[in-house]
Amino acid sequence: MKLTSNLQNTFSDLDLTSEGARRFDEADPLREVRTQFHIPKTESGKDVVYLTGNSLGLQPKNTRSEVLEVLDDWQKYGVEGHFKAKKAWMPYHERLTASMAAVVGALTSEVVVMSSLTVNLHLLMASFYRPTSKRRKIVIEHHAFPSDRYAVRSQLAWHGFDPENDLIIAGRTKDQDLLNESELESIFESRGDEIALVLMGGVNYYSGQLFDMPRIVRAARKAGAVVGFDLAHAAGNVKLALHDWDVDFAAWCSYKYLNAGPGGPGAIFVHEKHGSDVSLPRFAGWWGHDAASRFTMPDSYVPTPGAQGWQLSNPPILSMAALNASLDVLARVGMRAIVKKSSSLTAYGIALLMAECHEHIQVITPQDPSRRGAQISIRVKPMGISSGKQVPEQLEEAGIICDWREPDVIRLAPVPLYNSFEDVYTFVQHLKQALSNPKQPARHSI
To answer: What CATH number has the domain bearing residue 402?
Structure first.
């Protein structure tokens, strides 16, 4: 299976027919992985075309047995399940560490599964946002996910600063879909002595742009700023090397590309150079206390070395069981294979979109495969209709689940673990129909 990365030449290189999609699927080394997931059904009982793994990943088939095992042990042992359960609950979170560290390119001491995404961002900023009267500004990207904007604004306000003046939004002045890292470098060069913290998404949720994270780290570090990333749309999606890139901290969720289910637990990364620094301020909780003396209930707090020292409370074992099931699937497949198929799926999708729908759409996701993950964001051009929402509504009627972002963007996420080339082909054909006849229901259903 060979898909050119030069999309200017894809139309002559690719077979963009339905037969071509099936041949790509037949040559896909990950084609059998799809059978390990539950695919939602239409009312007629056919598989939907599910392209919203960037919002909520599908359920692995091994999830049920993992969760039921915890329920059975709870029923059988009660509180003694912390030690007697088949997978004892006391160290349960440690079962996830090695697999999660492999997903984000970290040492096992630098990662822990805990709490939820925005809570974790606040906990990390409590440690790593240490403003002074002069160096107090925070940098984020334009089109950052709303929760990130709310979090950094509230941090600024909590410290007594003005979010309107002390939050630097890179790319906002040009209202651009994509952010060139050179603009960030210019900000660091001109205002570096004012910047305390950089907090950006690894993959922008809106455009699907994969940022050059090591470049950002180098530029921010030169300016003397701390660097953190929200990896909600990056973890399990793109190749990460947080330790080697010298990232200070990161946080992510597990319900998107990590398929841990709605509200699945979050996780954090803290670089080893910080993990052993017991003087680093942090909010403390008993589960972050050194495990050797945790149950002696000492009055003074001694943090566990590494990222585990940022834990607060008992881990949620039931939801961690679901994550454990999904991480088993990811570990067997490996991030290298996931990223390779993702590059092919999105290249195929963009080529097909440009061949079939170019008059009505603009692809805003980078066409360079090294600058995107498993997401394609397309802007629907005005067609004289009252609301672009009619297009995704028609797609949903046809059994295609994708995502609409105001005012005019459709996001689709062909996830390598369970999406096929035929899924992408089917989406584009129904999109073409909806764009050509926006006031009419799609003529076919799946």
So the answer is: 3.90.1150.10
